[in-house]
Amino acid sequence: MIMNQRYAQSPKEVAGLNTAELRANFLLEDLMQADQFSFTYSHYDRAIIGSVAPANEVLELPVYENLRADYFLERRELGAINVGGDGEVIVDGTTYQVNKLDAVYVGKGTKSVQFKSVSAGNPAKFFLYSVPAHKEFPHQLIKKEDAFPTTIGSKDTANERTIYKYIHLEGAKSCQLVMGLTILSTGCVWNTMPSHVHDRRMESYFYFDVPENQVVFHFMGQPQETRHLVVQNHQAIISPPWSIHSGGGTSNYGFIWAMCGENLVYSDMDAVAIKDLR
């Protein structure tokens, strides 16, 4: 079994891509398919972005030829956040009850990871993010209520939002994985605005709770050479380290952010003033 791959692109290459080429390189559209895993291997920091939606079966994390490993997490760690109904994650025989917007960290060296839903009528939907790891850290269930919620922004500028940090330097410990989510307040549509870049880490965004017939315009590219992608519910973005990553929706929504790279400091970013964007 071979995993999809996406290769790294330089800023100069990306500036010349048309809409179809941008989507083919940076947008993941096939996530949350019932009773199957969907994974993409990115050559930005060798992050793997994916999902599993176990509607009717208990699904075991498979291994892929790309990894040249005996099992998926032989040299990797994994973060999982549930955006669907109540579910369970079974890690080497230990069961974690994972409700909507709860997270699980699974450390390097774990041989068996299984995913299941409590009810087939309201299945769990797990966003998955895996990165290389050189050290083992303990598995951990992180409840949404314990995820350091912080509200920033303002309704006056349509960017009031609450940030939940799950796996980070001061939260659940990991080797190099940083992960959490953001929920926009009613009437607010802008995420990560003012925007930023962080050359020391790549990042992925996964958009969820985008209402039917609504979309998010996700902005990417260098601050003075921006592009956009139109994103629907349960789709994800691969964001290069040199790129901004922000969005404006036609409604409020939520998104998971997941990073890996040089450090675990959530606040390590280089801000870009709104007036300097092009």
TrEMBL record:
Signal peptide stretch: none
Record EC number: 5.3.1.17
Cofactor note: Binds 1 zinc ion per subunit.
Residues the entry annotates as binding Zn(2+): 196, 198, 203, 245
Pathway, per record: Glycan metabolism; pectin degradation; 2-dehydro-3-deoxy-D-gluconate from pectin: step 4/5
Keyword Ion transport appears in the UniProt entry: no
Gene Ontology molecular function: 4-deoxy-L-threo-5-hexosulose-uronate ketol-isomerase activity; zinc ion binding
The UniProt record lists the keyword Metal-binding: yes
Keywords: Isomerase, Metal-binding, Zinc
Catalytic activity of the protein: 5-dehydro-4-deoxy-D-glucuronate = 3-deoxy-D-glycero-2,5-hexodiulosonate
InterPro entries on file: KduI, KduI/IolB_isomerase, KduI_N, RmlC-like_jellyroll, RmlC_Cupin_sf
Gene Ontology BP annotations: D-galacturonate catabolic process; D-glucuronate catabolic process; pectin catabolic process
CDD domains attached to this UniProt entry: cupin_KduI_C (cd20491), cupin_KduI_N (cd20294)
First-tier enzyme category under EC: isomerase
Obligatory cofactor(s): Zn(2+)
Pfam families in UniProt: KduI
Chain coiled-coil ranges: none
Xref: PANTHER family: 4-DEOXY-L-THREO-5-HEXOSULOSE-URONATE KETOL-ISOMERASE
Annotated HAMAP family: KduI
Summary of the function given for this chain in its UniProt record: Catalyzes the isomerization of 5-dehydro-4-deoxy-D-glucuronate to 3-deoxy-D-glycero-2,5-hexodiulosonate.
Family per record: Belongs to the KduI family.
NCBIfam families on file: PRK00924.1 (NF002091)
Protein name as it appears in the record: 4-deoxy-L-threo-5-hexosulose-uronate ketol-isomerase
